[in-house]
Design goal:
This protein is an all-alpha fold. The chain contains 17 helices and no strands. Helix 6 packs across helix 8.
Amino acid sequence: MIARIVNISKKVLGNPLVLLFVLLVVTEFIYKICLKEYWHFFKISAALKLLLQVFFVIQIARNSLLKLWPVVLLTVIFMLGQLGWVPFDLLKKNALFLDRYLYVILALIYVTTITDVKKYYPFFFKVFEVFMIVNSILIFVGFIFELNLFNTYYGYGKRFGVNGLILRSGAGTYIYWIALFYYATECFLLKKNKWMAFVIVFLASLLLGTKAMFLGIVFIAMYIWILKKGYKNKWHWLLITCVAVLSILFFTDILVWAMSKSDALNAVYQERGLFSAMVSLRDQHLLEELLPLVQEKWTWRNYLFGGGYDMHYRSQFGVLDLLYFFGILGTAVYFFIFWKLFVTFKINTVTTIFLIGTFILMAFSANFFYETMMAFYLVLIKGYFETRNDYYETI
């Protein structure tokens, strides 16, 4: 037993992707405990993130200084949208958001500096699978025993949701979206015997309590339907038509019933209506704060390079927040850089479905690009597509 633990420890320490992933998972959970106990000052997760960024920059610079051009370019665009517009204190606050947006870029560049990185992926996948099973079991435990520590939202009973070791609700949605896509591909396309894990992760995803997760599950169902060539079956089309008609007829009633099961969402529904409850008041931020600010105060420089104003006014819709922060030109540059670094795999039916689903989830949710943990889940799925693309059959 001890020999096995020592062997696993050596494998973790010898695999940079797994080592960083484990460190991030552990520190985020420790910070989650701190938040639940109101020890907000103990920012272990932020400290590790800062150390990792310094490490990334050093490693990238050692490999090739030219690889840092995306970071330099995005920083220049940020400065063009900020300098001369905001006081120094606000500039420092906005620079923290820039730091978050750059983190995923730095992580993706760092991976390109690892020699023969593909040899590290198989163990990374195994650790990811173990984490997803353990976290899903903890979600069930938290749900059954009503443990506040594993809740998605702070303050037990205010809003339903259990996410286990994961710190933030938005990250939980994206992580389980990636996990479900991973297991669906393993089971339905690559024909691997991982059905039990897929079911466990699927059931756990239903308990996250985030509305975006249900949208992700719809995409997973569509993905499986395409993999199984359900579009060739006329009875499938008949069933889909019936479901679509019933959904349209009873959509509002079902949503109102679902909202009534959450005190927080029901209060928003009663006060501001169904749409506000569906998007968790993001429409309020958009219509009452962000759009008036843009209409009244933005100039051509803001439209090109970004806000220059307090990020408090962001809408928490992913794409709109990116536009608010970087402007039209800056957002185009950010998406171009992200695409070049992330989409290093073949574009086919499988990867196209993943990219479309991810974009839609990101567009209607917050924190995709500046969620620390997301960087290594993106590294994982990127590596998964790179190493599995040769096995994909024509769909």
